[in-house]
Design a protein that fits this description.
With 290 residues, this protein is α/β, with parallel strands linked by helices. The protein has one domain (3-165, 186-217, 261-279): NAD(P)-binding Rossmann-like Domain (Rossmann fold, 3-Layer(aba) Sandwich), CATH 3.40.50. The chain has eleven helices and 15 strands. It has helices at 11-21, 33-41, 81-90, 128-147, 167-172, 190-203, 220-230, 241-244, 250-255, 265-270, 280-289; strands spanning 3-7, 25-30, 45-48, 66-69, 99-105, 116-117, 150-156, 158-160, 176-177, 184-185, 187-189, 208-211, 218-219, 238-239, 261-262. It has a seven-stranded parallel beta sheet, sandwiched between helices. The protein has a two-stranded parallel sheet with strand order 6-15. Helix 2 (33-41) links the parallel strand 2 and strand 3 (45-48). Helix 1 crosses helix 6 (190-203), helix 3 packs parallel to helix 4 (128-147) and helix 7 packs parallel to helix 11 (280-289). It is globular. The protein starts with a strand and ends with a helix.
């Protein structure tokens, strides 16, 4: 494996680049000139292209030995036409990549009423956002069956880092649910997710899904309390579900409608991952020290 293609050159991709560029020639798809400049500075070869324009993807055919697919679906609709176009481009060349690693979301499981969830649980997405990810996963699995390309799915929960914390929300005093109505939530530090994606290139089993989550077992309100305490901000007010709807956006409310606790044993057993930030407390200590 000598050449890697990154599709979706955002924050997690930039965190993965230092490890990747020391080992491979890395190409990265980007839409905007400023993104191309950042990728070039990080050691990647930027490729101008847009997953919403299939004609711009022709040069991807046969380009890389493996693909890291980090791009999200569109913000609307029930499916993921971006993944459809990407797979069509990858499959149109004389040679195919050996593998594709896709960062999906744990939203594909839907609401699990706080149950412990491993990767054998069937997908039951209950939001359009989750159903778009289910569509992407299905397309990738179908592509793998037809082509023989090794596909692995990394199902990520809430991604955080020192510069990806809900400080503005806390400063606005947006409410969270009262404790007896609160939902279980899950997290992964962006640095750990980038490292997991890199390790998956070599260690992920064909067709496997992995819960790319840390070891924390927290409710959503407790997470916001922990961030507030770490940065000496007031804890958010707690309200019953019946009262909170008028204070928050529909998107935020949708996250408060799903509760699950992720089992990450497969991640550790098969990918042999050692998390740098195994708990939220570890990540917050690093953030405040920085």
């Amino acid at each position: 494996m000598k050449r890697i293609l990154i599709v979706g050159s955002g924050d997690v991709a930039l965190r993965a680049l230092p490890w990747l560029t020391r080992r491979f020639r890395v190409y990265a798809l980007a839409r905007q000139p400023e993104a191309c400049a950042a990728l070039r500075a990080a050691g990647a070869v930027p490729l101008h292209g847009d997953l919403d324009d299939r004609r711009s993807l022709k040069r991807l055919a046969g380009l890389a030995d493996a693909v890291l697919h980090f791009a999200p679906p569109p913000a609307s609709g029930e499916g993921d036409p971006r993944t459809k176009r990407l797979l069509a481009a990858l499959g149109s060349g004389k040679s195919l990549p050996q593998g594709v690693i896709y960062i999906s979301t744990t939203g594909v499981y839907g609401d699990c009423a706080g149950a412990r969830v491993d990767e054998t649980r069937p997908c039951n997405a209950q939001t359009a956002r989750g159903r778009r990810r289910v569509d992407a996963e299905r397309r990738l699995r179908t592509f793998a069956r037809r082509s023989g390309v090794r596909i692995a799915l990394l199902r990520a929960p809430g991604i955080y880092a020192a510069d990806r914390l809900p400080l503005e929300r806390l400063q606005r005093a947006d409410p969270v649910l009262v404790a007896d109505e609160d939902v279980h939530t899950n997290h992964i530090h962006a640095d750990d997710l980038a490292r997991i994606a890199c390790l998956a290139l070599f260690r992920a089993r064909a067709g496997r899904a992995y819960n790319a989550s840390d070891d924390s077992a927290m409710k959503m309100g407790d997470y916001f309390d922990a961030v507030a305490d770490a940065f000496a901000l007031p804890r958010p007010p707690r309200l019953p579900r019946a009262e909170i709807a008028s204070r928050l956006s529909a998107l935020t409310l949708s996250f408060m409608g799903e509760s699950r606790r992720l089992d990450n044993r497969r991640l550790k057993r098969e990918l042999r991952v050692r998390l740098r930030y195994p708990t939220i407390a570890d990540g917050l200590r690093a953030a405040t020290a920085a």
